[in-house]
Amino acid sequence: MIEKKIIKSLRDIVGKDSVYTENSDRITHSYDATQKSYLPDVVVYAKSAEQVSEIVKIANSHSIPILARGAGSGFTGGTLPVQGGIVLVLTQMNRILCIDTDNLIAVVEPGVVTSELQREVEKLGLFYPPDPASKDFCTLGGNVAECAGGPRCVKYGVTKDYILGLRVVTASGEIIRTGGRTLKNVVGYDLTKLFVGSEGTLGIVTEIVLKLLPKPEAKKTMLVQFETIDGAARAVADIVRAKIVPTTLEFLDAATIGCIRDISPVPLPDECKAVLIIEVDGDREVIEKQAARIMDIIQPLGILDTRIASTTEESEEIWDVRRKVSPSLRKVNPDKFNEDIVVPRSKIPEMISTLEGLSEKYGLPIVNFGHAGDGNIHVNVMVDLAEVGMQEKVDKVMEEIFHSAVALEGSISGEHGIGISKMDYLGMEVDNATVGYMRRIKSAFDPNNILNPGKIFQSTEP
């Protein structure tokens, strides 16, 4: 436990009402979207970079673990205080400091909710593309920590492609700035990109400079049903080969369709074994031509039915099919293990076939959907952990899933990070020499290993 004099010092920095030591408060900050929980010693809410700096100085001088937390919506345990210590909550640092319509940038604090920024910039005719599924409650600081993606990244890229600069509190409590407010900046090392995706292990982000785009004039949404997953995968490859880059290319496999068939706003017959949700955006005339071209390209690939939205309401109805997926999965089993592997687009059918084989081998339902446009598959192993030996069975199937993804020249994580859930598998994808350099970077930035320790690497030592 943290000494009372340190608790007093924390209260002196942020105020008595922003430091929580009661068990109930610690429990509410002990978990994320994983099914694991670790109790922190104290929870502190900060309101400024200067407060964060002073808190980190205390943590560093006493070698106390400190973990920055936003909405706690991560899927790999990145915001779990596995070694106790201080959970530093940044949700009150939630100001949009600037939306610069002349230079197409926004400056925000880390506690800003992603969809809130999107709504505000769209009022001004601008556009912030990254759209993680949790955008209505996840924070931009968390998006930076995990390098979040989303359906639109096939065309627009992920969070790192929109970060121009950061203000960061280092492990020693110094406040530094990286990057800037210009698109071009090659002064020294690119520390900005180093912090993005580092899961809070190298520094605590307190301000973010974001690149914005002009808001597209229009969009067109299509839902296409296929007889086979091979047909859907070929459609993805053929669309991209035709030099058409849709905004989104989402897919649902047969197991996913089975989960939502009874509640889908769009009829999904038994013959439907795969669904693609395709969206294009841009100039109105251009997207009409793109949509027609896409339909021509995929017509020979075993299509059962096609629905093309002509209104905003019809577009929302199509996307509601996708939104029905996550809430419906627990009809299969009460416990979900959600992983986000990536394979080359052309190898999606092979990966799905492998997943179907693993489902049969282990007798576990495996439901797959995700971002076909960039090969990002969300693999959901649905189980009942109350069954004896179930966790061990899950561990075995997960290891095989990751091995299979890497064997297909893919990755064990596309947008969820490593955290604690995947650190045992890091060596499958990253060789020892590379991991060694990562460890050296961690040690150089955080010699006392106080920043979110116990994440990414197997050992708790940097």
Key words describing this protein structure:
alpha+beta, Uridine Diphospho-n-acetylenolpyruvylglucosamine Reductase, domain 3, 4 domains, 5-stranded antiparallel β-sheet, Alpha-Beta Plaits, globular, 462 residues, 16 helices, Uridine Diphospho-n-acetylenolpyruvylglucosamine Reductase, domain 2
Describe, in plain words, how this protein is organized in 3D:
34% of the residues lie in helices and 21% in strands. It is α+β, with helices and mostly antiparallel strands. It folds into 4 domains: 4-89, Uridine Diphospho-n-acetylenolpyruvylglucosamine Reductase, domain 2; 96-214, 2-Layer Sandwich (Uridine Diphospho-n-acetylenolpyruvylglucosamine Reductase, domain 3), CATH 3.30.465.10; 218-327, Alpha-Beta Plaits (2-Layer Sandwich), CATH 3.30.70.2190; 332-425, Alpha-Beta Plaits (2-Layer Sandwich), CATH 3.30.70.2740. Helix 1 (4-14) packs antiparallel against helix 3 and helix 13 runs antiparallel to helix 14. The mean pLDDT is 95.
